[in-house]
Design brief:
about 30% helix; FAD/NAD(P)-binding domain; 22 strands; alpha+beta; five-stranded parallel β-sheet; single chain; elongated
Length: about 400
């Protein structure tokens, strides 16, 4: 057996390691077109590498994938978050769980993960070849001929783990094998608001905001962070992931509304106002904030609706109160563009999942050809889910449908 794994990222390495563990006698090569492997692992999680997420229910885990979740249920039955934790821990890399259930190496250093994967590859005699660009793949009776740097090489099996590609043309060589390709568009991005004055609140976090996109059914909830260019944080990133195609079709020009309180409806907010008025009527409105938002944000919203900070609660006029409630519940911001989140480029799109057997990751159109990672039409929200999909699909692809 002579196996080529195309792509030296997380999915490619995991697929190659799985191959060698299932078929120790096989000759396994990782073909990476750049001069560096595992580049995305290095920068992920702010350089800490968010390895996976502490969600151990397959049904719940699959809900974190805007595309591919339903199909991944089958795959997670074979390799899931528990297996990921066990795999790294058994190789001397314990993981820790943070308050939001993201899991990182206990060292807080992505290099720990890179070193582990590279060490395992070296131990198993996997050939890692850099600067190898695969331009074509041809199926034949003996397996596959790959055209690499204008030279042809024969392999019995091929695993494609080339990651996402921003251009549809990047999938032409796989479309030539009769695979349906779903056009790639960005997922997981932050919102640019060049005409909104967000810089003065840079760094402020609303712990439980609700983000909606006007004119659509998109609505997400979670922490929201204000940046000098606009808005980020889990609420925005989830919105960008679930709405990847919708927001692409809007050319990233839309109005986002923010409910800063995280409370389900306006009436609950109104009740909070009435409670505060009756309990703290003699206090300054700027000093008594009834919501789970920072003092800095609260004061900024008061200024926005032209309420004096030294006004006491009992003297708050009805008109100003209604204006403040509306702003808390339905604060509108013009979005004009997007920014990649922390250098982590994620796309939706790729190989259509109906062309893949998700129990084996083998192509239904081309036996002997397997897929792993983001080359597939699979993407998760932020929190370690994209890496989990890489480990899962890589491990299963490496079993080569059990030879």
């Amino acid at each position: 057996m002579k196996i080529a794994v195309i792509g030296g990222g997380a999915a490619g390495f995991f697929a190659a390691l799985s191959c060698k563990n299932h078929f120790p006698q096989a000759q396994v090569s990782i073909l990476e077109k750049s001069q560096k492997t595992l580049a995305k692992v290095k920068v992920s999680g702010g350089g800490r590498c968010n390895v996976t997420h502490a969600c151990f229910s397959i049904a719940e885990l699959s809900e974190f994938y805007p595309r591919g979740g339903k199909h991944l249920k089958k795959s997670f039955g074979i390799f899931n978050t528990k297996h990921t934790v066990d795999w790294f821990t058994s190789r001397g890399v314990p993981l820790k769980t943070e308050a939001d259930n993201r899991m990182f190496p206990s060292t807080d250093d992505s290099q720990t993960i890179i070193d582990c994967l590279q060490r395992e590859a070296q131990k198993l005699n996997i050939a890692v070849q850099l600067g190898i660009s695969v331009s074509d793949i041809k199926k034949n009776d003996a397996g596959f001929t790959l055209v690499c740097n204008d030279e042809e090489t024969q392999y019995t099996h091929v695993i494609v783990a080339t990651g996402g590609n921003p251009k549809l043309s990047g999938f032409d060589w796989l479309a030539a094998l009769d695979h349906e390709i779903l056009s790639p568009v960005p997922s997981l991005f932050t919102f640019n608001m060049p005409k909104e004055n967000t810089a003065e609140l840079m760094g402020v976090v609303a712990p439980n905001a609700i983000v909606r996109v006007q004119g659509t059914n998109l609505q997400t909830q979670g922490a929201l962070m204000i940046t000098h260019w606009g808005m980020s944080g889990p609420a925005v990133l989830k919105c960008s992931a679930w709405g990847a195609r919708i927001l692409h079709d809007l050319n990233y020009q839309f109005t986002a509304t923010v409910n800063w309180t995280g409370l389900a409806n306006e009436e609950i907010i109104r009740e909070k106002f009435n409670e505060t008025k009756s309990k703290h009527g003699k206090k300054k409105i700027s000093n008594e904030n009834p919501f789970d938002i920072t003092a800095r944000m609260w004061e900024s919203l008061l200024t926005k609706v032209e309420i004096k900070h030294d006004l006491i609660w009992s003297e708050l006029p009805k008109k100003e109160q209604n204006r403040l409630i509306n702003t808390l519940y339905n604060d509108a911001y013009k979005v004009e563009g997007k920014t990649t989140f922390k250098e982590e480029f994620v796309t939706c799109g790729g190989i259509a999942l109906h062309d893949v057997n998700m129990s084996t990751m083998e192509s239904r159109k081309c036996p002997g050809l397997f897929f792993a990672g983001e080359v597939l039409d699979i993407d998760g929200v932020t929190g370690g889910f994209n890496f989990q999909a890489a480990w899962t699909t890589g491990f299963i692809a490496g079993k080569l449908a059990k030879g």
